[in-house]
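Form 7-S
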Amino acid sequence: IAIDGQVALRDFVLADYALGVVQSPLSFRGETLGFDAILGQKGKTQFNGRTALTFKKEGLQVLSDVAIARGRTEDLVDVLAGLDPNLASFQGLLFGDVEGEGHIESPAASLTGTISLRLKDTRYYQRGLGAGAATLRFDKGEALVLEPMRLVGPLGTTTARGRWNWSGPLDFNFAIEGGSLLEAVNPERRGP
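Output:
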């Protein structure tokens, strides 16, 4: 059996990920449902990619690639906010520029993959966290792991790492070194 078509979705939510507006050609061949040229937009952030879902006797297999060329951190927070109230608490507070890519290739039941982000002009509660890279890893369908990351900016050097088990709470470490007390207390009064 072969099926071809086009899908266009508005306010699209998949497994609590709020993806926004998404469109793609659609194909079904053999055991594989393919979305070969995904174009999407969440807020001001455009993304593109491809996804193949293969339905096998042993379970659903996922192959997915996504890229963000120039996006906004707050839009990514909005995508993830439905996953957990702790993530939703960052809405309206975490801002900045982001670009990056993600790759998943695994059985859906033991989701494995990575998301690599490059952050710039990152601000939390208007405090300048700055720029740096972040890598998140889906760990065998059990957790989302934030690999050790570092942002350098007006607030100082901010480091974070941690793990969010799907069955339990967030477990993260966060630190600021060489920080600016003025930036922490009153970011509007920072000097040149």
